[in-house]
Amino acid sequence: MKSYRKELWFNTPTRVAFVNITGQVQECIRESGIGDGLVLVNAMHITASVFINDDESGLHHDYGVWLEKLAPHEPLKQYRHNDTGEDNADAHIKRQVMGREVVVAITNGRLDFGPWEQIFYGEFDGKRRKRVLVKIIGE
Ligand code: ZN
């Protein structure tokens, strides 16, 4: 069995952002030389997510609106977590809803997706450097 590890870095210009990372994950699979196996992709921060869904801008807008209703960024004082001096309680909650990681099958060296599936990095406390881990196992 072969194994491969890589960190992808992001620094989004906005506090909340959704980035399609499918091409970067596929490139990792190519680099790994693994044709048949599994790829794990996870956010390495507790205020960011990795998830799979459609690459459709209206949907991404809807996620932003829905998450902001669920866990509004302001007022900051509504959250006990922000009593620590942080301002990102909402980002922790948004990450919890959108998930930490995805696992995708690799078949013939390609992501073995269903229709319209794409992998996204979801940022909820951006404007700083953060990482995603890509781990691939297989042969
Ligand atoms: Zn925090």
Largest sheet: 5 strands, antiparallel
**Could you report the average pLDDT, rounded to the nearest whole number?**
98
Q: How are the strands of the largest sheet arranged? A: 1-8-3-5-6
Bin the strand percentage: 35-45%
What's the helix count? 3
What percent of residues adopt helix (DSSP H or I)? Answer: 25-40%
Q: Radius of gyration over alpha carbons? A: 16 Å
In one word, what is the shape? elongated
| Shape-level CATH architecture | Sandwich
What name goes with the CATH superfamily? YjbQ-like
Low-confidence stretches: none
Distance between the termini: 5 Å
- Count of strand segments: 8
CATH fold name: Jelly Rolls
Identify the bound ligands.
zinc ion
**Please, how many domains?**
1
Which CATH class applies here?
Mainly Beta
Structural class: alpha+beta
| N to C succession of SSEs | EEHEEHHEEEE
Provide a concise account of the structure shown.
The protein has helices at residues 22-32, 57-70, 89-98, and strands at residues 2-10, 17-20, 36-43, 48-53, 101-107, 110-111, 118-123, 130-138. The chain is an alpha+beta fold and 139 residues long. Zinc ion binds next to loops.
Task: Please provide a written account of the structure.
With 139 residues, this protein is of the alpha+beta class. It has one domain: Sandwich (Jelly Rolls). The protein contains three helices and eight strands. The strands form two sheets. Strands 1-8-3-5-6 form a five-stranded antiparallel β-sheet, covered by helices on one side. Strands 2-7-4 form a three-stranded antiparallel β-sheet. Strand 5 and strand 6 form a beta hairpin. The mean pLDDT is 98. Bound molecules: zinc ion. The site of zinc ion has 4 residues, from loops.
